[in-house]
Amino acid sequence: MKVDLPALAITLLIGAVGGSVAAALEVPLGYLLGSLLAVGVTAAMGWRPLGRGITLPVRLRMSFVPVIGVAIGGAFTPEVAREALGWGGSLLGLLVFVPMAHALGYVVFRTGGLPRVDAYFSALPGGLIESVQLGEEAGADVRLLTVLQFLRLILTIIAVPLIFAGVTGHAVGSAAGVQMTGADAPLTSRDVLVLAACGGLGVWLARLCRIPAWIITGPLILSALAHVTGWVQGVPPGWLISLTQVVLGTGLGARFAGVSGAMLRRAGALAVLNGAAVMALAYAFAMALHALVGESVSAVFLAFAPGGLAEMSLIALSLNLSAIYVTTHHVVRIALAVLAAQIGARWFLRR
């Protein structure tokens, strides 16, 4: 497909300015949230800067996601591998959490007047692409479904850093000057080549093997192997992580282009109610499971919060939490949500 390069440049500029301003104001995860807000408002209001619409190709956004997987893999150590043996309790907890979160969302959306098929697929706590595709095949309103699923991601991405900042009483993550371990360590040419290979080969191999969330899990696995075996010591630099946040936030904000105000208001009210209910459920699971798995309440809460895999992993990196723990749980959550989408699609189609 042809890309409007001037429109893309303007969109990225708006995202970069929004992210930079938010970071300067010490907004938690400022580059991500600032770019999302700036581009999202511009797109939703229908503004056309210099006569150009807001646009950002999905392929460009996805090309930055492997950076997160490579960065997370850099945190993998033998100590983390030993800790992983104790994660069984919370991984099993997802088998309960995902159906409960789905049921909560379904009740909220049905009470809000949505038909059953729309409510079922809109309430799925993960697997956005699969939820929209299978929901459309089952007869759901694909536009409303897409907006609700994106609002789930965006509201979670916005709420989680603000919740951490509110609970701790001070700035967190990048807003507090915290950077992921090794983000400023100098990289040799060999390190750059190895990390780039982990990203590219990881995506290709994981997609070939049909691993869930292949675009991030493949680079993560290869990066973890490279670090454990001593092939590489460093991780992607801090500026690249910040750039990744801007691109991801800009991509999410651009999704609001063409959405009517009436649909956005209706979907927004329902999404806020659903988000509050599911976040409260995630916190309850975090309180119940953190001692069992030996992780902090914050880490378990972040592992269960139903945001995007890439964005939740970025938050974990920014907060110096156990990013591998968080990412592993989100991969399982998405796999369970996709399974529920497939089951629901078959059921609705039969009826």
UniProtKB/TrEMBL annotation:
GO cellular component term of the entry, any: membrane
Transmembrane stretches, start-end: 32-50, 62-81, 87-109, 153-175, 187-206, 213-232, 238-257, 269-293, 299-319, 331-349
GO BP field: regulation of gene expression
Domain of life: Bacteria
Keywords per UniProt: Membrane, Transmembrane, Transmembrane helix
InterPro entries tied to this protein: AbrB_fam (IPR007820)
Protein name: AbrB family transcriptional regulator
